[in-house]
Each structure stands twice: as C-alpha cells, then as structure tokens.
Amino acid sequence: MSKQSAIGRIRGSGWLFILPALAGLIFLVLYPFAYNIYVSFTNMSVYHIRNFTWVGLKNYVFVLTSPDFLTVFRNSIVWTVANVVPTVLLGLLLAFVLNSKVKGKSIYRLFMIVPWAMPSFITLLIWQSMYNTQYGVINALLAEVGIPAINWLNDCNWAFIGIVIANIWLGYPFMMIIFSGALQSIPSELYEAASIDGAVGFRQLQYVSIPLIRPTILIAVLLGSIWTFNNFNSAYLITGGGPGICTTILITEAYKDAFGGTFAFAQAATYAFLAFIILFIPGIFWNRYTGLTRRST
Amino acid sequence: MAGVRLQNVSKVFKNTAAVKDVNLDIVDGEFLVLLGPSGCGKTTTLRIVAGLEKPTTGSVYIGDTLVDDVLPKDRDIAMVFQSYALYPHMTVHDNLAFPLKMRKYPKQQIEAQVTKTAETLEMSNLLQRRPKELSGGQRQRVALGRAIVRDPKVFLMDEPLSNLDAKLRVQTRVELKNLQKRLGTTTIYVTHDQAEAMTLADRVALMRNGMIQQVGSPTEVYAHPVNKFVAGFLGSPTMNFMDGTIRSSDDGAVFDAGEFSFQVHPNVARVLPAGGSKKATYGIRAEDIEVENGVREGSVEVKVFGSELMGSEQFVHGTRGSMDVVARAPMVFQAPIGSSVWMNLTSPNAHLFDAENEQALA
Amino acid sequence: MSRSKTMRSVQSIAGTVLKHAFLIVMSIISIYPVLWVITLALSPGESLVTPTFVLGFIPVPATPTLAHFIAIPKLHLLAGATFPVWAKNSIIITTSSVALSVALTLPAGYAFSRKRFRGQQASMFSFLLPSMFPGVITIIPQFLLFSTLGLVDTYFGCIIPYAVGSLSLSVFIMKGAFDSIPRDLDEAAALDGAGEMRTFYKILLPLTLPSIATVALWAFMGSWLDWALANVMLKDNTLWTLPLALYDFIQPNFTYYGSFAALSIIMAVPVFIVFMIFQRYLVTGLTAGSVKG
Question: Residue C292 — very low, low, confident or very high, per pLDDT cuts 50/70/90?
C-alpha cells in the first residue's frame, strides 16, 4: 500500500493518533487492573486495611472451591446469554422497523428510549414492586387472562426470569440506537439496486442490511455480553441475589464482599479478576473468529 | 427486446416540478440519451422508467405493457447507477449472480450466464475479488455486468461513466456503444456530457427544467437545434451567440450587432420575410467562422485574447466590444494576444433565434 | 393486472398494520414502568403509594400534586448545595466528557481505519478491556491515583474517567464509520490537492456524523446518570452532580420516593432533548450529495 505514502503526505504515524486515548486507557484502566490483581493476592479487608499481607493464591483457592462458585458461575453464563440474545434481536427488529417506511418514527423512537433515559435505580425498584406476588401489577394482569399468580421473587426460576425481563427492558433501547445508526450508513442506492435485482422486503434485510451491519452486530454482541456479565444493578436491586443464590451472579458476589460489611476487598478483587479471565478468553476467540479488529484493507 | 414509451409523464416533488409533461417514444433496440444540465429532470425521468419513482401523472409503457403498477423487479429492466451500487460484501461473482439468484434461476444456468458475462466484459479473472479491491474502471464493468447478466428488455444507465478518469471514459464509451449494438438491447442513458451523448446516442433527448427541448439524432440536433438552449448545449466549444437585429433588403440580409454588422448568408436569412427586420440572436459555431490575419471585406475585426492549441487545430478567442467570439483555425495560424484578426461570420450553417423566446427562426 | 395491484396493496397494508402494532406494543412496554415513576412524582408524601388505576392497569396519582417538582429547585442540603448548583455541575461535567470522548475517539477511530502500524490489532483489542472490568473495581484505584494527582474534588476527576470509560464502544463505532467510507474519496480528495487534515475535516468527518452522534450520545449517558464514580470523586457537596443529589434521597432509614421520582423525571428530560437533537444527525441520509454530481 505504498499508494498511501504517495498520496496526501501522511503526517504522524498511527500511534500518535491513538496515543491520548491509549494514555487514558493505561492510567485509568490498566493501572487499576494491575492494582486489582495485586490486591487479589493479598488479604485486604476491613481487618487489614493498611497492614495487608501477601497470601498468594489463597483467595483464589477459597473462591474456586467454595460450593456456591459453580452455581454462581453458571448463573452468570445463563444470565448473559438470556439477556444478550433477546436484547440484540429486539434492538435489530426495532431498528429495522424504524428504518423502514412507517409514520411517526420520531415519536416511537422517543418512547423506545424511555427505559434507557431514566435512572435505573428507580425503574428497577418499580419492576420489583410489579413483581410482588400479591399486589404486583404483573400478576394482576395475568389474573385478567386467567393465569394463576406467579411467585416471582421467591421462586428460584421465576426470580431469574424476572430479573432477565427487567434487564432486557433496560437494554433494548441501546441496541436499537446502535443498530439504527449502522443502518443509516447504508447508501439507499444499494436498496434500489436490490429492488431492481429482485430482492424486496425480507430479502433486502437478508442480503443487504444484515451483511452490511454485521460488524456492528458483532461488537454489540461482544460488548453486550461483557457488560451484561458484569451488570450489577438489575440482579442486585430486584432480588438482592436471592432467593438463596438463585439470582446471584459473579459481580453481585463481588459487591457483597467488597461493600457488604466485611469489606473483603481482596476477595472482591479475586472475583473481579476471575470475571475478567472468563470474559477475556472468549473475547479473544470471538475477535479471531469474527475478525472484529481486522483491518479493512 | 422492447421499446419504451413515456406518455405525459410528470413528477412533482413537494412544490417543484422535476419533470413536466414528458412524451417520449423509444424504439426497440435504440440507444437513447437523456442529455441536459444538472437538475433538468433527466435522472428523475430515468428513475420513473425504472419504477423507483412514481410519476405524479402520466404513464410508462415497456414493450406494449403498461408498467405503472409494476414493481421495478418485475419490469424486466436493469440499471447501472452512477455510484455503481455494488454489494460491498459480495464477490464480483456473487454480485453478478445476485439478480439471477433472486429470480431463482437454476444453479447451472446462473454459473453459465455469469461466466459468459464476465468473458464479454473481460473480467473473468476478477470474479473472486470484492468491490473494494477493484479499480474504478473495474467496478464500472461489474456494475455493467450485473445489468447485462439478466438479458433484460431495457438498460437504464445513470451517468455510469462520470466517475472514471477522462481517458478511461472515452475508451469505455466506445466499448459501451459497441456492446449495446451487439446485444441489441434498448438503452436509456442519462448524462450531462454532450460529447458523450453525441458519441453514444442513436437519438438524443435534450432536457431543461423538466421539459424535453428536442429529440433527434446527434447530427440532427447539432445541425438543426430548435432553440438557443439546445444550440448552446451541444458542441465544444460552445456556439457563439450575438444579440442584434437582422434586416433584410434587396441586397441580402445584414445582421446589426450594434458595434459591428455583417452579411447574413441567404440560406440563413430566408427565414425572414423580404424587407423585414427582427430582433434576433445570431448563432454561429467556431468551426463555421473563417479567421484571417488581414482585413477582409465583410469580416469583423476582433482582438485576440488567447487561443487554445488542441494539436490538430486551434481555437482563437477574441473580443469585439462586449462580444466574445471563438473561432477555429489551423494550428499554423498566428494569433498573438492583443493582435487583431478578422473573422468572417457569414456562413450557411449559422442560426437565428428569436430574441424573446429563444426559438429558432424557421 | 389490477388483481396483483390489489394483492400488493393488501400486503402492504397488512405489513403497515403489523409494524404499527409491534411499535405500539413496544411503546407501551417501554413507558409503563415510567408511568409509575410519574405517578410517584405527582403523589403527595414520600412513601410508595397505591395509585388509582385507569383501564385497570395504568397508574394515575390519586391526588395529583406538583409539590415535589416545586420543592426540588428550592432544596437546600447544606450551604452551597442546591439544585441549580448540581445542575450546573452535571452540565459542565457531562458536556466536557462528551467533548473529550469525541476528541479521543475521532483520531483513534481514524487511525485504526486508515493507518497501519505495529500492534494495531492488539491495541484495538485493548480498548475492549475497560468493559471487562466491573466498574466498581476500577473506581477505588482511580480514586487513589487521582488523589495523588490532586484531582479529587475537581471536575477533571470525573470528566477524564467518564471519557475514557466510554471509549470501549466508541472507538469501534468510529472505526466502523470510517471503514464504511470508500478510500476513493480519500484519493479523490488527495488528487484535488487536499492534505490529510483537510480530507479529514471537509470530507470524512461530515460523512461520519451519525456515528459521531452515537458516540456523543453514549458518552452523554455514561456521564449524566453515573453515581458510582461521582460518589467517590466528589466529596465536596458544592461539586455534587445530579445523580449524587438523587441518591441522597435514599437515606439509611427512609427513602424519599416522591422526591426521588420527581428528580429522576427532571433528570430524564435533558436525555430526551439530547436524543432529539442527535436524532437529526443519526438519521441523516449519507448518500445525499456524496455521489450525485
């Protein structure tokens, strides 16, 4: 590609361009990360705030061999998949519909972003009250249709489904916005060419829209999964991780340790690092497989 | 194979009429060029034929079929877009195969037609590449190939060559004309480039402000423009125009442009009744003006302000009072800047246009 | 001929009806819980109320009152800590974060798309790292770092982390946006005599406006509603942002639901305004003018 150097006198190598952003990354992310790893090898907690000592892998052994670990881990995985798939699909569907010929787009869009625009603390609390077995609206509505009341917050499985639904509610507006943006950048001439070539309606989605927003879908799935995995609010605020550990995911466990009385920072750090590894490794494979960071030419 | 007929077609966008009452009868197998400046409505007209726009009034017939309510994909047409609109995520092969695939052609037939089209356009070696790996000229060929592969009744082309560099454009023009003749498919071609139109067209339809000004073969519209716009749009350099009055007398007709006057050739002057006088615009092309270094009776003295040396000939630009003229001269002709030359404006090929409505006087 | 026309009309009407039905259902789902918030905000008292219902399930305040909304601008927590102050802080911090985020993202996205340099793929991937750490974990070390730099209790203490935190997604969006612009345009501009900066500003930037709007919106959201970082960085309550004031309604023994709801709604209004402004840019047709001569 010596063409590049011939044209336009490239000033400054690529590194210069990403340096500011990268610097921010190093100081504000890499450093805490390193710090976090360090702490996870100590016994920092409310009892050892200043005089913490190195304990090696003791925290890791403790966490990984705890009886709850497997359940919490499994919960995290199920939680992630159960959230990402519907959120992405809903977001795509909404983006497609709102990108087509339909009246009142702006108004609909405003409604759709409401879940995202409100502080989630209060909306999640509302969801919690809606799930109330006796007084909650949801059971009231189900009763209208003849379905018996569901013990949302106290039944292990239903509690999980409940927080998933609430989290999807929080999540699809964002996906819709991202995919809408991507769809806008497809030149309308491609759709015209496709309609002349014989592709109309769904086939245009199949052969033009989706292939061209594929990079966006890929990053949305990847980041969506990462964020959901570490999403603290929904799981904690509605059920507090209960009943038992039914709705506890890795991150709520970490929070409980860090701020739930014992201030066991080291243990929280351990969970955090484990969460990172769990996300990092598939992340690398996802990247390889889908060519997310591949150069365009 | 089919002709195309537009009947009283109009298109109004919001408050502007982009196309006004267009009537056009395109013969089967003909290469018709819609020519005109930006915004004249030629592309809109093309898109109406394609079915990408619905006409506000009027009808379109492809073959003998009224296609007003027919979707673009069912009109058996193919379109080449100015920006090519190639599917970026598909290989050249898949781009070519796409129209066939959408119509559910059997796989073998698809392969056969794609291969044949690729051969015709000499791009068999590009089939596995993606559009972004191709040069502009190659992409243009793929766009063309996608249109050809289906062997439709009509080709619609929207300035397909305008993104190519000059040399490639001229080359491709000729190849395109050739191809069309071989395939015999009716073609409607939009361009703003008059040279392109002259080369490619069997007939040219000039448009301005949404209306068709004139339809005819290139030679016809060139030699017999029906109004000043057509006369001025075709030909390079542009036709020279001068405003004044033509007076006919027993000795012949004289054109009085205020600062100078000259004889008008009888062929041109016969449009005027004897003894009459009329305000008109005189139009004469550079190639119909004779230039001399010395005074010539009947010629107009003009001061040279420059000349374009084309290699095989030159174009001398001069001014006389408020009038600019350009005349063709052989390369050897000496026309230093600031010097005076004498131009003979009397020619049988000149034109007269009504001073008010710009129509050719006939 | 007319039969297929009728069939197609029926099909398109059915399609439109379906689309609207879907959108209406989703709209109702989207705003329903917020109707409760509105009801809380408009009901007297600070506890969770039982509203009256319209149509059986739409909550409506039994005795509507604007008391909470009126009270908020006048709230005084401690000297210097009032609503206008919080609002001012939030606005300054948020707009700065958005500006910084865009300023960091644009060159990075451009570089990843248009340049080649060693370690490119790895550095691109590393932008995903911030997301892989739960936010709570990064906050404390950030606090420690900023306190040694003396940036605690300043606007920058929030602006910088907010901007950097939004990079994960933003860099990829920008890279994607630049990727989707064909190199032809770069080359055409170069042939026309434009240097790299010129090409970037006059040609590439306008074409990536929808993505820049997305990046800005994203940075806005990350900053406007954040509580966790602000809580740690801004101890001085003349520097409090709106979320900090908001969560202050949650006291250990009692939660002021009414006020909380009212303030939540007030905070949500700018989000809609920003979204509406950006919608313009999100919806711009990119094809307009870029190819047609």
Answer: very low
SS3 content of chain A, % helix, strand, coil (to 5): 70, 0, 30
Q: Is the dihedral of CA B242, B243, B248, B254 positive or negative?
A: negative
For chain C, the domains span 2-65, 71-282
Q: What is the DSSP string of B147-199?
A: HHTT--SEEEEESTTTTS-HHHHHHHHHHHHHHHHHH--EEEEEES-HHHHHH
CATH number at residue A96: 1.10.3720.10
pLDDT higher than 70, residue C288: no
* Structural domain boundaries, residue A291: 14-68+263-297
Residue B40 belongs to domain spanning? 4-233
- Give me chain C's average pLDDT, please: 80
Q: In total, how many domains does chain A have?
A: 2
Return the residue in C186, C191, C291 with the most chain B beta carbons within 10 A, the one to mutate for interface testing. Answer: C291
Asked if the model's pLDDT at residue B220 lies above 50, the reply is: yes
**A218–B contact, CB cutoff 8 A:** no
Residue A34 and residue A83 in one domain: no
| Residues contacting B152, CB < 8 A, separation 6+ | B76, B77, B78, B185
Residues A164 and A113 in one domain: yes
Same structural domain for residues A226 and A289? no
Any CB–CB contact under 8 A between A145 and chain B?
no
Residue A159 domain flag: yes
Overall number of domains in chain B: 2
**pTM for this model (two decimals):** 0.81
Q: Work out the average pLDDT over C256-267.
A: 86
The DSSP letter of residue B131 is G
**Same domain (yes/no): A50, A85:** no
To test the contact with chain C by mutation, choose from A16, A29, A49 the residue with the greatest count of C C-beta atoms within 10 A, namely: A29
Which of A196, A209, A212, A213 is the mutation pick for testing B, counting most B CBs within 10 A? A196
The pLDDT value recorded for residue A36 is 81
The count of other CB atoms within 10 Å of the CB of residue C20 is: 15
Same domain, B118 and B75: yes
In this prediction, residue A261 carries a pLDDT of 61
| The architecture CATH gives domain C71-282 | Orthogonal Bundle (1.10)
Lowest mean pLDDT across A3-17, B126-140, B234-248, B340-354: A3-17
Hey, is B119 helix, strand or coil? helix
Q: Chains with 3 or more CB pairs closer than 8 angstroms to B?
A: A, C
Whether residue A221 sits in one domain with residue A88:
yes
Place of tokens 């519909």: A97
What pLDDT shows up at residue C286? 35
Out of B233, B250, B277, pick the residue that ends a domain: B233
* Closest-CA residue of chain A to C270: A117
pLDDT at A120: 84
Phi first, then psi: give them for residue B202, nearest 5 degrees: -80, -40
Stronger pLDDT, B264 or A233, i.e. the higher one: B264
Same domain, A180 and A58: no
- Helix/strand/coil for A26: helix
CA of residue B147 relative to chain centroid, distance: 22
Task: Test B99 with A197 for CB contact under 8 angstroms.
Answer: yes
Would you say residue A253 lies in a domain?
Answer: no
Q: Which residues of C touch A287 (CB under 8 A)?
A: 125
Nearest CA distance, C200 vs chain A (angstrom): 11
DSSP labels for A255-285? HHHHHSSS--HHHHHHHHHHHHHHHHHHHHH
Using a CB–CB cutoff of 8 Å, tell me whether C256 touches chain A. Answer: no
pLDDT tens digits for range C176-217: 888 877 777 777 777 777 777 777 777 788 778 878 888 898
Q: Are residues A168 and A226 in the same domain?
A: yes
Q: What is the pLDDT of residue B267?
A: 85
Q: How far is C236 from chain B (nearest CA, A)?
A: 54
Does C74 have pLDDT greater than 90? no
